[in-house]
Amino acid sequence: MARLSLNQRTTAQWSLREALDGARAAGLSSIGLWREPVAEVGLETAAQWVADSGLRVSSLCRGGFFTAEEPDAREAADADNRAAIDECVALGTDVLVLVPGGLPGGSKDLAGARERAAEAIGRLAPYAGERGVRLGIEPMHPIFAADRGVVSSLRQALDIAEQHPASQVGVVVDTYHLWWEPDVEQQIARAGERIVAYQVCDWITPVPADNLLGRGMMGDGHVDFPAFTRAVAATGYAGDVEVEIFNADVWAAAGEDVVATMARRYAELVEPYL
Amino acid sequence: MARLSLNQRTTAQWSLREALDGARAAGLSSIGLWREPVAEVGLETAAQWVADSGLRVSSLCRGGFFTAEEPDAREAADADNRAAIDECVALGTDVLVLVPGGLPGGSKDLAGARERAAEAIGRLAPYAGERGVRLGIEPMHPIFAADRGVVSSLRQALDIAEQHPASQVGVVVDTYHLWWEPDVEQQIARAGERIVAYQVCDWITPVPADNLLGRGMMGDGHVDFPAFTRAVAATGYAGDVEVEIFNADVWAAAGEDVVATMARRYAELVEPYL
């Protein structure tokens, strides 16, 4: 379990306090935090709790949402992302996960939205680098291209990331978002040291009515975790492996049971291939 | 309306007879047929009706489903696809749309499924070419990678198609499946004369619970039809433009109204850019 991290959203039924305690009780050494539950208790308190827990923070979710067209909204997004970078520092993680954002309401200019996302990353990269934080561009499954994430493949995320030093901008490799990408193994090899986070969960079918909740526990869907994990390991990736599952059934279960299942599946399908 | 084609599934509420009559009544000159309704009346009768209607047949949907692992199932798929090619000849169309098929039940070997699809296309290509039929590989939105279509991008479809003469194997360019692809305009340019069919419909959100029915009338969703159509037209594509919509609301409406709306949206969003 030395590299297994509980992404906080996997146990959305838990408060931050419960998630820290639950992760420790399960013998994990790492946790992935979200900004909203951190803000609920206050950054200082959260940082103290995290330090006391002895857990590593594998990443902070999430910055991004860069696709607005109006200058005011873009400046607000920049400011919010600088705040998120500062929160990373306070919480002791060097990874900020970036969700690019979708098409602005009514817009059909996907190329323009992608360009604005890339530009925002360029504006923020030095600020992140100076603080020892790496921005992790998260390419998202094309099902979300309209409403959540206009960066749709690892290839595309790398095209953006490679315009900046690897110490400033990397990519988040998430099995759920990328398992379908035709040349994903080559793109993972290309990513190399730019992989700042490896997130795992499964693509399940049928996709539920609320598409956001279509993530399954590893082994419940169609992803070939051994092959995917081997490709990530071959890059020399030595970081934590975050389990991030949005799923109504998982959220309805007891947090302890979710973490136990997650640890078992990880031990079976992921850890041996790292 | 000289190049507008009614794909039969857009008016699934209509029989073949009604669709032929409805398309003519609306002033269209082309129709895209499906094998099942053709089989219902018998191939010979269908061919006669089509000839009498004076409509072109822009394509026949659909061959494919190539991903089975067992030799018997693969041979059966080959035989069925040869039959579909023969049906194209009988119906007077030179395009067979291929839906690659999904992962076999329980399998997580996406690479293997893709390889088997490519191999099957290779086995069928000469048979098609000898009969004057072009196989149209339809890359499908990655939402369908597990259960319907393992070819997930135009780039990937072209990697397969280019292994064969353009007179035998091409690609189907469908706005719904491809609008998110990061370099889709370059891939369309690359496709050139291999574009055997241009199908239009919109990507709408929220994606409905039955994902197969998430296609919208042009203009109801997020696709930039002028830009997409310009890219297709720039290749010299001179074929028909099929409207193919799977949508419960569209199917619940009167067929005449659907065709009228479709013609209006086509005239507004597609035709001027051809």
TrEMBL record, chains A, B:
Sorted UniProt keywords: Isomerase
| Superkingdom classification of source | Bacteria
The answer to whether keyword Glycosyltransferase applies is no
Q: What does the record give under GO molecular function?
A: isomerase activity
- What would be one Pfam family of this protein? AP_endonuc_2
List the InterPro entries hit by this protein, alphabetically. IolE/XylAMocC-like, Xyl_isomerase-like_sf, Xyl_isomerase-like_TIM-brl
What sequence ranges are listed for the domain Xylose isomerase-like TIM barrel? 23-254
* Name of the molecule in the record: Sugar phosphate isomerase/epimerase
Q: Taxonomic lineage per UniProt?
A: Bacteria, Bacillati, Actinomycetota, Actinomycetes, Propionibacteriales
